[in-house]
Amino acid sequence: MSTTQRDHLIGLLLGAEEDWPSAFEALARKLGVLHTADGAQHRIETERVSIEPFNLRDKPRQDLCIDRLAYWYYHPREWLKKAALMDDVYLLNSPFTFQSMEKHSAYCAMLRLGLNVPNTVLVPYKHPVDNARWAYTSAKYNQQFDLDQIAGDMGYPLFMKPFDGGGWRGVSRVRNSDELHKAYDESGEMLMHLQESIDFDVFARALTIGPESMVMKFRPDEPMHDRYEVSHDFLSEKAGKEAIAISQTVNAFFRWEFNSCEMLVKDDVLYPIDYANACPDVAVTSLHYYFPWAMKSLLKWSAFCVVTDRKAKTQVDTDPWFAVADNADLDYDAKILAYQGLADQHFDKDRYLEFCATTLPNIDEMVYDYIVSPEFRSMLTSTIQQTYPRHEWERFEGHFGGLLTMWADDNAQLAGNA
Length: 418
Ligand SMILES: Nc1ncnc2c1ncn2[C@@H]1O[C@H](COP(=O)(O)OP(=O)(O)OP(=O)(O)O)[C@@H](O)[C@H]1O
Ligand SMILES: [Mg+2]
Description:
By secondary structure, the protein is of the alpha+beta class.
């Protein structure tokens, strides 16, 4: 009997990043031949996707595409849509979910699910919308409103930030009426939320890839390379589980595969504030200690998707989620538990874990051996040299080298068995 052999191509649609793609490509090369329970053999290859004219009837060669570009570059975005609709290419993330990628939809959906989204008001535009019909429409329908009254009712301090924000664009913390008006005047053509400020004890930021989440302690006021603190027990056990459930709920609900979720924690209550990111930061210079986990998870999840022919659905199915949300017999904790169950189902978690155990049995050792290899170290060095000015190279070699050595020490039991 001949053995079935299948090749799977993973496309990387990239912008300016070099660090994690090189790590991902190196690890994918080391996977070798994968064996599944049915006796088939699988090989995974990666290829960077180039941008060129395409006929809508062309057949893409990729089985899966990890997209880091389409959130701002529309030609490849349309290629992704075609590939998803016509050719069943599996996408991390799908542009069909991008319309929900603004904070606003995500806030609304999570509010309906009963999560503790801070009190939030959407304020009309400060500046007229660029449309010939605006003057008439506005004169006839725009209600006068008293911004001070809204802010006063919500209570200072408040955050004013764009409804579709990202990268701190247009975010202000306002402490009084003067700051409020200044922030609103400066918002110009941006559409703004006014949001209750949570005086948090700790900031948790979770990166989620498929059914894998890493909840990390985040310090938003530090420079990028110091924002993630290496800290293992900074949340209570209950809050830790809840942070994972919330992150995976957001992703499973919107069909996002690769996303980060920010939660403010005060007195063990979790307030999700930001969880819609088409292109979460996975730079080695941000994630450092957590970078090996991110690469391993991305590889495991994409291997699972291509090898098991996981089918991507382009549209959100809100029904099962709202059935839980609207069930008056369930309290908050029971709903969180039910959402975790729905998320596990969505990501096919049991099958995924079984796949990792049987088809990727040596992946931990493989990732360990790569992270301690000269190949990884030279990628780190070249990333440092591209990212920072020359006089800081030595300091950052020490900083990131130290954090990754710490990771290697913490995972030393995995050494050398690959
Ligand atoms: N309701 C809030 N309470 C307390 N702090 C807040 C609140 N909203 C925002 N912040 C602070 O402002 C920062 C930026 O806000 P937010 O994450 O919503 O914007 P962003 O543009 O998506 O930023 P980023 O891309 O860095 O995540 C947060 O990291 C947090 O420190
Ligand atoms: Mg944020």
